[in-house]
Write a structure and sequence with these properties.
Elements lengths: L6 H20 L6 H7 L14 H26 L5 H9 L2 H5 L6 H5 L8 H19 L6 H25 L3 H15 L23
Helix pairs in contact: 1-3, 3-4, 3-7, 7-8, 8-9
Length: 210
């Protein structure tokens, strides 16, 4: 059977897209080559026509997952009013929806505890994404670059940790409490809204006798 010129590239893209979801749902060691190839309509043996090794696929899938996360952060920041972008990023991240959909969520929360056991290429990609997330938050914070970076790291720790622990807790009250507490702690690192000035009461004019 003859295929279109771009058939191989399209097939490869489908495999990587599926692997990016599996990677976040099941972890790096849970990415099953046989299942991915079956989903792509190919045999297990056809895998090596597209990738040198399973590790090569994991690295590419990790890169795609991170690219997607970065684009979502960019979209959220661009759509929020200036001065509210930090809060928008936090509020978009620390949610029950994110907790319940790891396959399309942040790679930091899904893979942070196990990436140290992957190869150097995967770790390098992961660290690069971590720096980009810190930079994205830092850009929305006041103060010196050093102070903004410190606050961004603290906020990101609250954000990622909240998603990780809320997933461990399930979907009950404790999980919701973890999300609420983590979101509040992260938002505390952000720009402070100016306090509204109380309107001065205008004294009623004194009655005068004419």
């Amino acid at each position: 059977m003859r295929y279109a010129k771009d058939h191989k590239a399209e097939t490869r893209a489908r495999i990587v897209k599926s692997a990016a979801v599996q990677l976040r749902e099941k972890g790096a060691r849970g990415v099953g080559v046989a299942d991915l190839m079956k989903e792509a309509g190919l045999t297990h043996g056809g895998f090596y026509a597209h990738f040198k090794s399973r590790d090569a696929l994991v690295v590419e899938a990790l890169g795609q997952a991170m690219d997607g996360s970065r684009q979502r952060w960019r979209d959220v920041a661009e759509q929020a009013p200036e001065g509210e972008r930090f809060a928008a990023l936090v509020n978009q991240y620390v949610t029950a929806e994110h907790r319940d959909d790891p396959g399309r969520g942040c790679t930091m929360a899904a893979l942070g505890s196990e990436i140290v056991r992957e190869g150097p290429k995967a770790r390098k990609l992961f660290l690069a994404q971590l720096e980009r997330m810190i930079a994205a938050l830092s850009a929305q914070l006041p103060g010196s670059p050093e102070h903004a970076r410190e606050q961004a790291i603290a906020a990101l720790t609250n954000m990622v940790g909240s998603i990780v622990l809320s997933r461990v807790a399930g979907t009950g009250a404790l999980s919701s409490d973890i999300l609420d507490a983590g979101r509040s702690a992260a938002l505390e690192r952000g720009p402070k809204k100016p306090a509204r000035k109380a309107r001065a009461k205008v004294a009623a004019p004194k009655a005068t006798n004419s």
